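Handout, page 2. Input:
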Amino acid sequence: MIRPNSSTPRLWIASAAASVLRAAIPGDGFAEQGGPWDPATFKGVRTVDVQVPPIDTSVESDGFSQIQFEADVKLRLLRAGIDVNSSSPVCAERLFVLINAVKSDVLPLYAVSCDLEFRQPVCLMRDPCVLTSATTWSRNIVELVSSARAGDFTRQSLANLVDQFINAYFDQNPKQ
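Output:
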């Protein structure tokens, strides 16, 4: 343990913060979660749209780019053999990508969350005339990453989540 003195207050704060985060987050600085879902909700899906909302412009200089994240996801889906609908705004099935990044004021670190949700149109059982959208599959990851590699590390984590989506998709829609 590092004891604080006049020459090491930042180091002591960093050490204390890292200890707290390690206790709160299992593994090597990240936590990954996914909720229960019914795999049958993928059956018959032929086309997927990808939506990435705008990312806070204050983090773009460290490699967080809405355009890059969207291009990465679409390319990964296309290479896997999943049709990506990029021309029609009415595509019903949508892979929603949400990236949140918060830069530390004290340390050269980012807290980053990547959320991947598969949203599909659904009808309410109590009123089948009501059509809405619901998340039928999701995965997310929360990370603590170095500012120097935050964008690249986030892109790789997002790729891992997309691979999980691709596997779930092809479990119900095997390649012919």
